[in-house]
Predict the structure.
Amino acid sequence: MPRQPRLLIENVCYHVICRGNQRQAVFLTDDDHSKYIMLLRHYKRKHRARLYAFCLMTNHVHLIVDCLKLTKLMHGINLSYAKYFNKKHNKVGHLWQDRFKSLVITKDKYLLDCLQYIEYNPVRARIVDNPANFQWSSYRNRILGQISDTLDQIEL
């Protein structure tokens, strides 16, 4: 039986989660993280998405995006990244576990709570003791004011 298409709604955001197949690591080097962010920027522009937060953990990704072409956005990012990863690391087969998950987030206080949840993920995983020490999330850009062409300003 085919999957049901995703219901996409205007004026909301989506908390997107992509997990490595069988919980395997999807980022092995700093170059891997950089490549994913580069692809995120490219497809964000292509599909006119707005990105409010991200966190690239070892075996999964969290994003908060506003995009009516969410499926095309994530298909482009994840397919391109899987091809890159498999070629670079001499692997074959699926990189991602199933299709990405997306949860609707209204543009209110809940959005701010989700931003914090995502950016504090490395602290909860005991990778760092301060989210500012984790290089692969939007925390430094949003909270510490580091300039970024990746993130968009939040409009509540």
Q: What stands out?
A: The helical segments are 30-46, 70-88, 109-119, 121-124, 139-142. DSSP finds five helices and four strands in the chain. The chain has one domain: 13-142. The first strand starts at residue 13 and ends at 19.
